[in-house]
């Protein structure tokens, strides 16, 4: 009889904290009024918001090590496990495409035209791809091989971005529209299928998904080590803190030559964010799983057990609500969610605090729904 995968409360806590942060930064009341830590870096650099996505991919990797460790030992089940992982990746990719195509206004929606212009890359799409590739590598490779793959990915990506001349430009560079990744996205996907805010490049593009896989594999190695039964918790914590500090510093040093950049998902960014994620998980493990201080974890665990579901619905719901039009005194119409923000937040706070207060209420609203699901043991696995 197959034993159930061992659960780590600190991992559930970390996942919930991360997805709640995702929703916070993705749903301000006004994109024109956001506190600086809740914005992405303009290009190079890393704000707290830039940590959220790599933390989630890191957690995906740790979860793979916990969920698939028994299956890794049974080579006969590898193909079945890989097929399940592929189906899950397809679902994630499909949900991302659904968010991209879902109309903001049914009255002007043209399905055929939307397919011609749908953005193909995206957050859920990248999660699906990283999950699948990391799963296959975990099942088929030893820890030493996984480590070597990470190193190969990071240095290969560095060499491609820093030394390969970009066609039509003539030289290697790291600028928004003229780097190798942007050229590849425009060539393969065309501008019609890229991020609508740029159209000439995509922050979840094809080439930058390669180092994103390294982020997932980083989490896999941390998960494998955490799951070891022959190592004392104190030793695990000491090693994880050491690895976290070392890789964070390595990322900062590499930043001097290959800048930390979320949109490009540079190799220095992988090391920097992976190191910080390792430190956060090690600290959480020490406090929650080792010392059993866990009363504060429940709200985040509630978010964590339905992480993908709440992320997807939080992206879908604003579009649905804004299809409901409310008439204004001047005769114009506005979406229901916009009306809610303008009516209950804007008059009572400064612009930037109104925007933040709205985002916090958004998180609390979903917490109530997730809490009811948790009480009824409703877990939607994607």
UniProtKB/TrEMBL annotation:
Residues 41-93 form the DUF5009 domain. The keyword Transmembrane applies. The chain crosses the membrane at residues 12-31, 51-68, 89-106, 118-139, 146-166, 205-225, 237-254, 269-288, 300-321, 355-374. InterPro entries: DUF5009. The keyword Hydrolase does not apply. Keywords: Membrane, Transmembrane, Transmembrane helix. This is DUF5009 domain-containing protein. It comes from Pedobacter polaris.
